[in-house]
Amino acid sequence: QKEVEQNSGPLSVPEGAIASLNCTYSDRGSQSFFWYRQYSGKSPELIMSIYSNGDKEDGRFTAQLNKASQYVSLLIRDSQPSDSATYLCAVNRGTYKLSFGAGTTVTVRA
Amino acid sequence: EAGVAQSPRYKIIEKRQSVAFWCNPISGHATLYWYQQILGQGPKLLIQFQNNGVVDDSQLPKDRFSAERLKGVDSTLKIQPAKLEDSAVYLCATPGSSYNEQFFGPGTRLTVL
After folding, report:
1. Is B91 on the interface with A (CB under 8 A)?
2. Would you say B35 and B102 are in contact if contact means Cβ atoms under 8 Å apart?
3. Can you tell me the distance from the alpha carbon of A100 to that of A5, in angstroms, rounded to the nearest whole number?
4. Is B90 near chain A, with CB under 8 Å?
5. Among B109, B71, B92, which residue's Cα sits nearest to residue B4?
6. Are A3 and A91 in contact (CB under 8 A)?
7. Which of A78, B41, B53, B91 is in Cβ range 3.0-4.6 Å of B35 for a Cys bridge?
8. Which DSSP helix (H) or strand (E) runs through A11?
9. Cα–Cα dist B16/B84, whole Å
10. Do B82 and B16 meet the contact criterion of CB atoms below 8 Å apart?
C-alpha cells in the first residue's frame, strides 16, 4: 500500500465549476497535510496546509481533513484556466519527512 | 522558489558520466532537503541536512549518489556514474515558517542519454 494515494486523473472541469481532488494516506499517525500545485516544467508550489480535522478555506481553495478516515481533499471553486496544473498531496508523520502522492492533473476548459 | 537557488537548471549527459547539482538556501535555513522527482511521480526525499550534518539519507542510492553541505549553507548533490533511470528533476527545499512546511527551489532537470 502506498503511503499517499491520489485519484489518478486527469480531471477535466469547465471554467467556473468546482474541481474536487482526493487523497488518502496510510499512516494513522500523520499530523500535517499539504497541497502543492505544480505547473508543467515548474517546481511544486505550496498552496494549502491543514493540521486539524475540518475545513480550511483560502480564497477559492478549501482543504478538508478527516483523520478518522485518513482522507484529505482539495476543492477549487470557480475554476479558472490558470488552475490547470498537477496537484500534489503531501503528508507528514510528525517528523521532517514529507511523503507525496503521484499527483492529479487538472485541466480547466474555457 | 524565491528562497532557494539551484543550478544548473538543465543538464544533459550520457550514461556513466558524472554530474553535480548545486543548491543555495538564500534564506539561510539550517535545514535543507534534496528530492528527486521522476516524471509522473511525486517528489521523493533523497537526503536531509541539518547544518553540516546528515539527518536522513535512507533513500539515497549511496553507490552512485553523494551529497555534502560544507559550512552549513550551500549544498551539492553528485551522481557518479549516472544511469538512464536517474533522469528526473532534482529539487532542493527548505522549511517554511509554519509546522513542517517545505518550499522548493526551481529544480534541475537532468536527462541521461
Report:
1. yes
2. no
3. 8
4. no
5. B92
6. yes
7. B91
8. strand A11-14
9. 9
10. yes
What is the 8-class DSSP label of residue B71?
G
Beta pairing class for B31-37 and B19-25: unpaired
Interfacial residues of A (vs B; Cβ cutoff 8 Å): 4, 31-32, 34, 42-46, 49, 51, 88, 90, 92, 96-98, 100-103
Contact status of B36 with chain A (Cβ, < 8 Å):
no
Distance from CA of A67 to the nearest CA of B (A): 17
Q: And the C-alpha cell for B76? A: 551539492
Mean predicted lDDT score pLDDT of chain B: 93
pLDDT digits (tens, 9 = 90+) for A32-89: 999 999 999 999 999 999 999 999 999 999 999 999 999 999 999 999 999 999 999 9
Tens of pLDDT, residues B33-91: 999 999 999 999 999 999 889 999 999 999 999 999 988 889 999 999 999 999 999 99
The grid coordinates listed for A96 are 521532517
